[in-house]
Please model this.
Amino acid sequence: MQVTILGSGFSSLSAAAYLAKSGYKVVLLEKNNSYGGRARRLQRDGFSFDMGPTWYWMPDIFDRFFADFDKKTTDYYDLHKLNPAYEVYFDVQDSVVISDSIEKIKAVFESLETGAAEKLDDFMQMAHDNYEIAIKDLVYRPGVSPLELVTPETIKKLGQFTSTISKEVRKRFKNRRLIQILEFPVLFLGAKPSDTPAFYSFMNQADFGLGTFHPQKGMFSVVEAMVNLCKSLGVEMHKNAEVREILTEGNKVSGVLVNNNVFHTDILLSGADYHHTESLLPPSFRMYSEQYWNKKTFAPSSLLFYVGFDKKIENVSHHTLFFDVDFDTHAQDIYDHPKWPENPLFYASFPSKTDGFFAPVGCEAATFLIPLAPGLEDNAEMRNVFFNKIMHRLELLTKQSLRQNIIFKESFCVNDFVEQYHSYKGNAYGMANTLFQTAFLRPKLKSKTLKNMYFTGQLTVPGPGVPPALISGKLVSELIVKHHPFITKMHQSLTI
Ligand SMILES: Cc1cc2nc3c(=O)[nH]c(=O)nc-3n(C[C@H](O)[C@H](O)[C@H](O)COP(=O)(O)OP(=O)(O)OC[C@H]3O[C@@H](n4cnc5c(N)ncnc54)[C@H](O)[C@@H]3O)c2cc1C
Model:
């Protein structure tokens, strides 16, 4: 029985591996000339850049994925816990360093607010408990029914679904810096902390409790690991294979049109953008209307720069956040009244600080990311205006001149997300995890209109991010196995 999979992001690769292991013939079709989806690698003049994800959080989920194939992450890549985990700038030469142990983090908290160390213990207890419930169990449920969320543990936590991260943090801490640091992890879920249920404090456990890791040679090493795993399991993989149309017969998918050829298939699974995938179907088979998508809260888009410097950069860490401007104003420009932010927060990654793979000796590779509202007008002029803004701030805050040391810069923004990934409104990482976009309230893994059509990825369950993408691939493969049981030839001959 053949399963054809659209896309080669983490969710597609994950599903491909599980399905191949279960005995299906798996064919994977990727439109771009590299695998990995948003996690592709850019290489130029001896420099390397992870184009998308750079934070390796929740190592237990990666371990669990590879263990399902009797493998370990170390069979494929080396992993280092970063120390410092990251650094946050609030003013000129004034940053807070988050290190790799909770004791050291508590000392920093206490130095900024008397009594904050004890309150952090209390907050982290909640975060830890939620991690145990959510990550070890709830996120591994397929979002089919609301009852999946009802367990003896979650009933006790009902208040945390109605309260928000913002409220829980502000109830305990008054210092603006501590508030921003504790609200930062849920930004990965794509919505404002004031719109994210307090239950998602498990992201703080991922941050302070488990720590920030770096796979040697970056996140693309994880893509390479999964591609190797898929190939070893017999997955047939094609690049430059864009699906232009999904063909149907009755209430089933019969095949896909790729480069003017028809690929017949028994089952179709799309890990490509959900909205885009539905646009490839005849209208009567689409489950969600344009109005539905338009009403949803999408994760931000981003303006990214990949920059090669001909010298080492001082006073920054591998992951450095620039929170020296007002977050609320920037958040309003993303979520409430979408426009280009006047003074954006930004994130910078300098992977060559800890990993020589990324830049030639004596040089620095830097990725800069400004979160933006999806769907904004994007042009070269705006990109340059914002590049100059952040370079000015970077030089000012870290007290050094850098602009004359730029060898090259490449940019990536809304238009590229649309053109390269068919991303809805150019969002960077899918649909946000707000209360009404959690679990069974997210777009479904199984089509209701076509018997053999499935979806996976960051617009489905559990949500945005690399670890959720790994889980999403597992969940959808389990649904496929359940609805289209694969009978091996040996088993068939025994039962006939
Ligand atoms: C800039 C950025 C930074 C991020 N940072 C982090 C981070 O630090 N940590 C973290 O955990 N997560 C991070 N994320 C989120 C994470 O990268 C994503 O949630 C995850 O990679 C999504 O995987 P996916 O499989 O759902 O989709 P995608 O990676 O989008 O894969 C979908 C694939 O489908 C292909 N495709 C589309 N249309 C077609 C078609 N018609 N035919 C064939 N193929 C098609 C696309 O080319 C793409 O390869 C970041 C994302 C971005 C963009």
User: Anything to note?
Assistant: Residues 6-12, 29-32, 37-39, 52-55, 242-243, 271-273, 276, 302, 304, 369, 421-422, 428-430, 457-458, 464-466, 469 surround flavin-adenine dinucleotide (CB under 6 Å). The radius of gyration is 22 Å.
